[in-house]
Specification:
The complex is a heterodimer of chains A (288) and B (365).
Chain A (H helix, E strand, L loop, with lengths): L18 E10 L4 E8 L2 H6 L7 E6 L3 E6 L10 E6 L3 H7 L6 E8 L5 H4 L3 E7 L3 H13 L7 E7 L8 H8 L4 E7 L9 E2 L16 E6 L2 H13 L7 E4 L15 E2 L2 E2 H4 L2 E3 H4 L9
Chain B lengths: L1 E4 L3 H10 L3 E8 L2 E6 L10 E6 L2 E6 L16 H4 L3 E9 L5 E5 L7 E6 L1 H15 L6 H7 L2 E6 L10 H4 L11 E5 L3 E6 L2 H7 L9 H16 L11 H5 L5 H9 L5 H5 L6 E7 L5 E8 L9 E2 L2 E2 L4 H20 L9 H4 L7 H9 L5
Parallel strand pairs in B: 2-8, 8-9, 9-10
Antiparallel strand pairs in B: 1-11, 2-3, 4-5, 6-7, 6-13, 10-11, 12-13, 14-15
Helix pairs in contact in B: 9-11
The chains are: A alpha/beta (288), B alpha+beta (365).
């Protein structure tokens, strides 16, 4: 658990209390997916708010409740805080109906993000499935903005249906960056789909691993993360260089409410990013 | 070690009250013992003892004039520090849509908790580790916790469901108290731990105990240990539990368990809670609460339209593997203090010691 120390809150800070944030911009990415850019209304709070790629916030919808959402934006290069959200539950459905200018609550950032310091000097493979790409966008942006510090960058995005594929222009742009491979595949194709059509995660067959100095960051459904790990470790990536972003029911985000426990780990504060050896003993076990 | 005569016990209440504490102690209500304000000794459950068995709790007279000749009740210390439902904050929305968040903190008064047993003090220490000494300190828990002092009583009459000797948490109070008493027929042996405890004790008419009283206390403690028939197979069952995740006995328990959550409600160490919202109908204000949850509910493992533990046996397994297993990694010991409440208050009498034995049987202590 050395790769990133979570911010330590003192006894006198109230980790449960949200701050007010304004929706500055709202973009509909697909039928169910939307992006919000936020600014904390108190300028001092906005100024002081720092985070790391892979961390998450608790977003609060007035009168309804909170939901854990990963942060998409780059803390060092973007002034606004960006969240991309899939409309699936009560809170996200309500938030999806808000417009620019409206207010929500926000508290965070929480958890341990991606192992960016370890990744420096190494080849990086980023694999995401479905909306799993949202938590990885911040790390992709981080690497691209500091491109010289990293080796070969491979970006793999797998979706089931082409409708799930958002941000095509970003993937097109990443393709043009030197020393970068972009692989996108959908289980089902469609007329305008010029990326791959392949089942499961067969697209990983095209990934090249040049050396053991390769770090893998994966986000998506757990089955997909496991298959991707199996595939990539067989190609020579050490297990300890594979990182997952995990998801569980989260209500407090500070390791108190107990819902996100995965064996002895609290996904919210020990993770959500874990190295594969930290979680493999229970991964895929029914009921955990 | 000093001695306080039974007739001088009221002076302990007076000393605590004069030091600014409201005294609370278990009292009989609804055929159970519940903590309530204690202003006179007569309110104590004098002459009452509890009979406990799987799915069974009764109080009855035992012919002794003792105040604390019972093991425990459904209520531990937990609700005093981790409230079963409490407001965390309120938020007001004005006509422009602006949100104003306001923290709502508890304002507890100083309480002297009298009659707390070793199992519950051990459990309180585990709750402290979880809420107070964790990565994030819990302001609500800490505010409730700080003004409490504890007058412990060594457990002289464990119930049939008790197994604190096997978990190492009782029957004698060893830490976490301000004053600890050993109740004898004619009075109490008194020992103090904290500065507050010493100050209170200094105001009492204490004398040196006789050797007879000391040997009575020793004999009583020995009997309290020997009377406990139940035990866990070992204090460290993490390996045995996680090596047996596919044991057929889990499903067998799942067929008996009603997933009612009684065990987690009475467990003095269970910490799971939900955050819930209570919005005003006119839309002007909303309050954010937390309330006890249980890993036996379906929604505990709910995650965007998926429930991870649909089957009851998976929920029981989650509870037991956490309580006796992964708790070791989280807080350095098992999460069970041997109070036996989960056995007593289970409507179908599921017995944690028997289930652990069935799954981890043969483990060497």
């Amino acid at each position: 658990m050395s790769h990133m120390i979570p911010s330590h809150h003192t006894v006198d800070e109230n980790a449960y209390l949200p701050m007010e944030a304004e929706i500055v911009e709202r973009v509909q990415e697909s039928d169910t997916i939307f992006t919000m850019q936020l600014r904390l209304t108190d300028p001092k709070q906005h100024e002081a708010y720092t985070y790391q790629p892979g961390q998450f916030n608790m977003l609060y919808l007035y009168g309804v409740g909170e939901v854990a959402i990963s942060i998409v934006s780059d803390p060092e290069h973007e002034e606004l805080l960006t969240h991309t959200i899939n409309r699936v539950g009560r809170v996200t459905r309500g938030i999806s109906q808000l417009e620019a200018g409206q207010k929500i609550g926000i508290r965070g950032p929480y958890g341990r993000g991606w192992p960016l310091r370890e990744a420096e000097g190494q080849d990086v493979i980023i694999v995401s499935g479905g909306l799993g790409c949202a938590p990885t966008i911040s790390v992709i942006n981080h690497i691209i903005r500091r491109r010289e510090r990293f080796g070969h960058l491979t970006i793999v995005q797998k979706v089931k249906h082409v409708d799930e594929f958002i941000w095509p222009e970003r993937f097109e742009r990443w393709k043009t960056i030197p020393d970068t491979t972009v692989l996108v595949a959908s289980t089902k194709g469609s007329v305008n789909w010029h990326w791959d059509v392949s089942p499961r995660i067969q697209v990983l067959d095209k990934v090249k691993v040049w050396s053991e100095r390769t770090i893998v960051m994966i986000c998506g459904p757990e089955g997909m993360m496991q298959s991707a790990t199996k595939h990539l470790t067989e190609l020579g990536v050490p297990e300890s260089s594979v990182y997952f972003s995990m998801e569980r029911n989260m209500q407090c985000a500070v390791g108190h409410c107990g819902h996100c426990q995965f064996g002895d780990l609290f996904i919210c504060k020990d993770g959500p990013v874990f190295s594969y050896p930290e979680i493999k003993h229970l991964l895929g076990t029914e009921g955990f | 070690m000093r001695f306080l005569a039974r007739e001088d016990f009221p002076q302990l209440l007076t000393a605590l009250q004069q030091a600014g504490y409201t005294c609370i102690a278990p009292q009989i209500r609804d055929h159970n013992l519940v903590y309530d304000e204690l202003t006179e000794v007569a309110q104590l459950p004098i002459n009452y003892q509890d009979q406990q068995a799987p799915g069974y709790y009764r109080l009855s007279e035992n012919g002794q004039q003792r105040y604390f000749a019972w093991a425990n009740s459904s209520e531990a210390v937990k609700p005093m520090t981790f409230a079963s439902r409490e407001i965390l904050w309120k938020v007001k929305r004005d006509e422009t849509g602006k949100l104003a968040f306001e923290e709502v903190l508890p304002e507890p008064k100083p309480l002297a908790v009298i009659g707390v047993k070793a199992c519950d003090l051990a459990a309180l220490h585990l709750q402290d580790q979880h809420f107070a000494f964790n990565t994030y300190g819990d302001r609500y828990y800490n505010l409730r916790r700080r003004p409490l002092i504890f007058i412990a009583v060594d457990c002289s009459h464990p119930a049939e469901t008790c197994f604190c000797a096997s978990t190492g948490d009782g029957p004698d109070a060893r830490s976490g108290f301000d004053i600890a008493l050993t109740e004898l027929d004619d009075g109490f042996l008194v020992r103090t731990k904290s500065k507050i405890g010493k100050n209170i004790a200094a105001q009492l008419p204490l004398r040196d105990p006789t050797t007879i009283q000391l040997s009575q206390a020793e004999k009583q403690q020995q009997q309290a240990i020997e009377s406990q028939q139940r035990q866990l197979p070992s204090r460290h069952l993490k390996g045995a539990l996680f090596d047996n995740l596919d044991h057929p006995h889990w499903k067998e328990i799942g067929e008996r368990c009603l997933a009612c959550g009684n065990c987690t409600s009475v467990c003095p160490t269970c910490f799971c809670h939900n955050e819930v919202e209570d919005a005003q109908l006119d839309g002007s204000e909303s309050a954010h609460y937390r309330q006890w949850d249980s890993c036996f509910t379906l929604r505990h493992s709910y995650m965007h339209s998926i429930v991870l533990r649909k089957d009851i046996h998976l929920r029981y397994r989650q509870w037991l593997t956490h309580k006796l297993g992964s708790w070791h990694d989280q807080y350095g010991r098992s999460g069970c203090v041997g109070c036996g409440r989960c056995i007593t208050w289970c409507p179908v009498g599921i017995d944690i010691t028997e289930e652990a034995q069935a799954i981890c049987g043969g483990v060497q202590s």
